[in-house]
Write a structure and sequence with these properties.
This protein has helices at about 5-20, 120-125, 140-150, 155-160, 170-180, 195-210; strands spanning about 25-30, 50-55, 55-60, 65-70, 75-80, 90-95, 100-105, 110-115, 255, 260-265. The chain is an alpha+beta fold.
């Protein structure tokens, strides 16, 4: 599943190329997770002003309204001047004056939704409960700590929930907690301020590094130019069960939390 770094890498790979383009046509394939919310013809002639990200949503700002795109579990975007004919799993084509933006989504858990603005009830339903952006200036340590002290769940589960801070998905949660030296089963409310500060910084460090490395390509992720990510090659714990910790040599352990795999070093990460 594409996580925040992969979505940000995707945004960076086409945002400058599509900015300023005018929409010439919009084609929808098989139904996605939610309906578009407007007839495709209504968007013809609109101009794409820019592309932002909120959590794992990409927001295409138009001269009137916005398009919210989510990659779901298996989606990927491409942007090309001369694309091939749409294939079986190509469910959204946005033809613009600067190229074609295409969503390929074999499992169809992704979405493309139109809203008049971020205040529109449709957009608010999708974005309104998202936590702080970890890579932005508003990722405040005090607010982060306040969010954690109210949660008795294991810290990894709290990170995955996305209502305190967005974008720390399964891969990066394991890596973040390793860097912070925190056992993933530790209750969020038990973290001291110094440990919370280390976690806050680890989130910034790991996610920024993942973006720099083009995200993680575990199966078939690629950005809008078809380039794979490389962060998985330097993972400290994720996917390394029974392998030696790169720091202390202890065997990495794997457990299940909320039906997801969690990886940690029992020596480097303390309860």
């Amino acid at each position: 599943m594409p996580e925040l770094p992969e979505v940000e890498v995707t945004r960076l790979s086409f945002a400058n190329r599509i900015a300023g383009a005018h929409i010439e046509a919009l084609r929808m394939g098989q139904p996605l997770r939610w309906p578009l919310g407007v007839v495709p013809e209504a968007l013809v002639g609109r101009q794409v002003l820019g592309v932002r990200r909120r959590g794992k949503y990409l927001l295409l700002d138009l001269d009137h309204g916005i398009l919210l795109l989510h990659l779901g579990m298996s989606g990927s975007l491409s942007f090309a001047l001369r694309p091939a004919a749409p294939g079986k799993h190509d469910h959204f084509d946005l033809q613009t004056s600067r190229g074609l933006l295409r969503l390929n989504d074999p499992r169809r858990f992704g979405a493309v939704v139109h809203a008049d603005s971020e205040d529109d009830p449709v957009a608010h339903k999708l974005l309104g409960k998202l936590g702080m952006e970890p890579l932005g200036p508003d990722f405040d340590l005090s607010r982060f700590q306040q969010g954690l002290v109210r949660r008795s769940a294991p810290i990894k589960q709290v990170l995955l929930a996305g209502d305190v801070v967005v974008g720390v998905g399964n891969i990066y949660a394991s890596e973040v907690l390793f860097l912070a030296g925190i056992r993933p089963t530790t209750r969020a409310s038990r973290l001291s301020r110094p440990r919370t500060a280390r976690l806050h910084q680890a989130i910034r460090t790991v996610l920024a590094r993942a973006v720099q490395q083009g995200g993680s390509t575990l199966r078939d992720f690629s950005n809008a130019q078809g380039e794979a990510g490389h962060f998985q090659l330097e993972a400290m714990v994720y996917g390394r069960e029974r392998q030696a910790c790169r720091v202390c040599g202890t065997a990495i352990k794997a457990i299940r939390q909320g039906q997801r795999s969690t990886f940690f070093c029992p020596q480097c990460q303390k309860p």
